[in-house]
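Lecture notes, unit on binding sites. The following record was shown on slide 14. It pairs a sequence with pyridoxal-5'-phosphate.
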Amino acid sequence: MRTEAVIYLNRFKDNINAVKARIGKERRICVPVKANGYGHGALKIAKKSLEYGAYCLGVATVKEGIELRKGGIKAPVLLFSQPHPDEIPEILEARLSPFLSDIEFTSILNSLAGKKKIKLPVHLKIDTGMGRIGCPVNEAASLAKHIKKCAALELTGTATHLAVSDSADSNDINYTAMQLKLFKKAIAAIKNAGVNPGIVHAANSGAVILHPEAWFDMVRPGILLYGYKAADEYELPLASLKKMSKFKALQIEPVMELKSTVTLIKKIKKGETVSYGRTWTVAQDTFIAIIPTGYGDGFPRLASGRWQVEIGGELYPVAGRICMDQCCIDIGPKPGVQRWDEVIIFGSRQQTADEIIIRQSAADLAKAVRTIPYEITCNINRRVPRVYKE
Ligand SMILES: *Cc1c(COP(=O)(O)O)cnc(C)c1O
């Protein structure tokens, strides 16, 4: 075994069920599988999501959508990012449902879909304060009317995206409430204009945890389903906390574990240095274990000197700089570690009598290198095999 990312599908299933239990059976789930399923393998995660009861999938690029269709996915695939008109033939061929923000793109899409005699399901995207794609709130109704008049398009959903739904800070809670108010106003205007908005959706992971009023007809949690809590309901201000207390606490587990192997053990003498830049000088005679994992696999170089790996249940520090394909671990002067031992870089799980502890999760690693767990799992390179366990 070299480096591998173990993907625990049973945990993914449990996470979907936890979200379902929270939002209620009447609501649907869209699983974002963009960026190779946040690094977990897009096609496998897509298939399992549908098997576990998700309604549809979300991708960022046309290529990602095509990959799902080629893999046999028949469910609706939402295209979250604004595509280029050059990509429209592929969008039509793969029957992807783009988020529409403006009349110009909508019209080109309609005319090309018409030529191919396709009726393409699309979603209207409204910018209520994310400041990214989406039409302005006061143009939502007219864009909806325009889409309704497009013979080759069918409006099957209306969405917005929340900028700070993962923050329990009271300013951010208020900002989200403002976004939701504008969204409801736009939905009402669309209905008043005689257009059916289709499936109404807004909630990302943060909103599934903190904002029940954002759940509407469908939720789109990504990072939460992959096992990281984007927010903590216990940090909410009291009034919001009370509102949440009628829901069962969300229990989720990280789906990915990054593993490797000790491929060599070496004695290093006092005063010698380890790895590039000679940033780590050995204070006393010690042993180092060489691990064939580096930043080329997605183990961030910034974790050099800031992370420990787990070998045989013990934690050992990274020694010196993490290289592209390898790193060195200080296993001490009398190591209990043996060559070929398994190494857990992040995501190790321990089950005690009454609780499950994920030691050193991707979220902890993210904190150590000042980023978010999304970036850690997304960056696990394609050369790292994904090993699926049910
Ligand atoms: C990525 C994305 C999501 C999921 O976000 P999480 O923070 O992972 O829950 C939802 N909706 C849109 C439009 C996205 O691009």
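Take-home: The chain has a mean pLDDT of 96.
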